[in-house]
Write a structure and sequence with these properties.
Layout (H helix, E strand, L loop, with lengths): L3 E6 L2 H12 L2 E6 L2 E6 L2 E7 L8 E5 L3 H11 L8 E3 L4 E7 L5 E7 L7
Parallel strand pairs: 1-4, 5-8
Antiparallel strand pairs: 2-3, 3-4, 6-7, 7-8
């Protein structure tokens, strides 16, 4: 089984391009009024809407702290904070913001197997 997260946006072309350029996402499917992107198996879509949805967080999980640090550098001014360890969840993370104001989290688990 798999899934897709969808968000409405008033700026689909702009937001799709941002995720393609900044997170190296690929277009998985282009539909009338909707674009579905994919990044390492994670599918997320943006659809034309009368109102931009910004609730929720798009979390991208990487394999190492070094990759998280590289993404921090790549996202630049979109970042809200520096990467740091979060002991509660045993992750190394930071938050950024896409051009719509949606929260984007970049993280890695500090252990090979995520805690249950």
């Amino acid at each position: 089984m798999s899934g897709i997260v969808f968000y409405r946006t008033d700026h689909r072309a702009k937001i799709v391009e941002w995720y393609r350029e900044n997170l190296d996402a690929d277009i998985w499917l282009e539909q009338t009024g909707c674009t579905i992107l994919i990044k390492d198996g994670f599918r997320f879509g943006f659809c034309d809407g009368g109102q931009t949805e910004t609730c929720g967080t798009l979390t991208f999980v990487y394999d190492s702290k070094e990759q998280v640090d590289a993404m921090h550098k790549q996202l630049g001014e979109a970042c809200r904070e520096h990467p740091h360890e979060n002991g509660q969840y045993q992750i190394y993370q930071f938050f950024a913001e896409d051009p719509d104001g949606r929260t984007v989290e970049i993280q890695t688990f500090l252990h090979k197997t995520p805690p249950v």
